[in-house]
Specification:
Elements lengths: L10 H6 L18 E5 L8 H12 L5 E7 L4 E6 L2 H11 L14 E4 L6 H12 L5 H6 L2 H13 L1
Antiparallel strand pairs: 1-3, 1-4, 2-3
GO biological process, one term: RNA splicing
Organism: Tetrabaena socialis
GO molecular function, one term: pre-mRNA binding
């Protein structure tokens, strides 16, 4: 026991304690998560095409979207970006904000989505990481000479 503070452990006990592990990290550097879970609970009375239009218009401001999957009955959506930096920026900017163009008083909740258990998505992600120029946007941003070299390397393997 610590003589100064009985509720705080002493130094030896503190150093012997095992390091705390984060059980389920939302987004780590080891995992390239580009998908956001968005809850739009207050705007649930909109029809599906209107909600799709609002989410698309609001999140497209942060970068190119890969996919928007809406679970309308659960008032939530999964927004996948082409780039992780776009997803990070959108998460920070849109959390606890309103959808622009909406007349409802909804407040969005934007969090990192869990990994996609779909085997097709897992294989596509692995293929994009392994192949040079696997990410379309990165590939298009390369110069013409670098692109030709990457494409010829793909053809030879």
């Amino acid at each position: 026991m610590n003589p100064r503070d009985p509720y705080f452990p002493n130094r030896e006990d503190w150093l012997r304690r095992p390091a705390r592990r984060q059980v389920n990290p939302g987004c780590t550097l080891e995992r390239d998560n580009r998908t956001l879970y968005v809850n739009y609970e207050g705007a649930g009375s909109y029809e599906l095409p209107r909600i799709r239009q609002l989410i698309d218009a609001n999140f497209r401001l942060f970068g190119p979207l890969n996919n928007v999957y809406i679970l309308h009955l659960k008032t939530s959506a999964f927004v996948r970006f082409d780039w992780r930096s776009s997803a990070e920026f959108a998460k920070e900017a849109m959390n606890k904000q309103r959808l622009a163009g909406s007349t409802m008083g909804e407040v969005l909740t934007a969090r990192w989505a869990n990994e996609d258990p779909n085997p097709v998505a897992v294989m596509a992600q692995k293929r994009a990481c392994e192949t040079p120029g696997g990410n379309k946007a990165v590939h298009e941003a390369l110069g013409a000479g670098v692109r030709r070299t990457a494409e010829s390397a793909l053809r030879t393997t």
